[in-house]
Amino acid sequence: MWWSMDVVAMWTALFYCYITTYDEEVSRIWPQSFKKLGKILFLITRYSQIPQLFIWLSWFLPSLGPWSLKGCLVLFELGAALEVLSISCAEVSFWICLYALLEGKRKYFALLVFVWLGFFIPIQTIQWMGFATYIAIEPGPFDRAYGYSCRYANTPGAQAAKYELVTLYMALARTILFMIASVVVIFVRYRRRNSLLTVIRREGGMYYICSSLVLFFACVIRTPGFPVENPYISRTVIKVLRNLAQYIFAERLLLQMQKTVYKTIRAQTAMSTLVFDDDNVPKTEKTVDHELSGLSGRTVHS
């Protein structure tokens, strides 16, 4: 029951985010070409959550029709895969910003891809080892009377909790590493503030602060020997908060990046050609920002 309430709370927050940003999505994201990475990341991050909702509802609400145990297991794996996809796209959005701040050079792109895959592949491998320990089982008489087709449980002797703890530590290490790298790049390479940096600092900073705190408390609570063990907090609340931070701040970052026309001398190639086009942005909102190049400390409005 608690899980179903958490899903309702998370989707209420996401639905509010959808409603309040839908007009910006239509005016700024939809006109973009599907060749642009910004549009791809935004749409996958936002709309891959819709099938997740129906899958979660099938887990926590009585089914309208009978499911076989194999069907239940496939549904579980599909939901896990969609969650990995949406969270990964949200994470990549922030890494793209770091790549742009590094002036879009190929050597930095190769380095960032290498580091990201260096964390992503082990984390997903260990995480799927944990998913593989779950099996679908026949529901009890009480659950069956209410229309549930199956329940999920770990195989006897499975190390799912240990797998999950390892992935949390690795995710925390990745988050802290990226946050430090971003701070160094922003404050060492770029001394002056401009509209693009303001967006990255605000949205990216809020995301990584929230994500770091959530992952830190998740690691502490789930560490063996911790005096207070509360599965509801360590698994349910932590997961909901982390997902909300990733989804909402990633979508806000992409929307604000499109809203802020980054005609920046150094970042222009990386951001304008890779992430978004600015052809459809109203001229009154276009700015030519020379601050990063050191040529001017003023923003010129066209």
TrEMBL record:
<keyword id="KW-1133">Transmembrane helix</keyword>
<feature type="transmembrane region" description="Helical">
    <location>
        <begin position="166"/>
        <end position="187"/>
    </location>
</feature>
<feature type="domain" description="DUF6533">
    <location>
        <begin position="8"/>
        <end position="48"/>
    </location>
</feature>
<feature type="transmembrane region" description="Helical">
    <location>
        <begin position="207"/>
        <end position="226"/>
    </location>
</feature>
<dbReference type="Pfam" id="PF20151">
    <property type="entry name" value="DUF6533"/>
</dbReference>
<protein>
    <recommendedName>
        <fullName>DUF6533 domain-containing protein</fullName>
    </recommendedName>
</protein>
<feature type="transmembrane region" description="Helical">
    <location>
        <begin position="109"/>
        <end position="137"/>
    </location>
</feature>
<dbReference type="InterPro" id="IPR045340">
    <property type="entry name" value="DUF6533"/>
</dbReference>
<feature type="transmembrane region" description="Helical">
    <location>
        <begin position="81"/>
        <end position="102"/>
    </location>
</feature>
<feature type="transmembrane region" description="Helical">
    <location>
        <begin position="40"/>
        <end position="61"/>
    </location>
</feature>
<keyword id="KW-0812">Transmembrane</keyword>
<keyword id="KW-0472">Membrane</keyword>
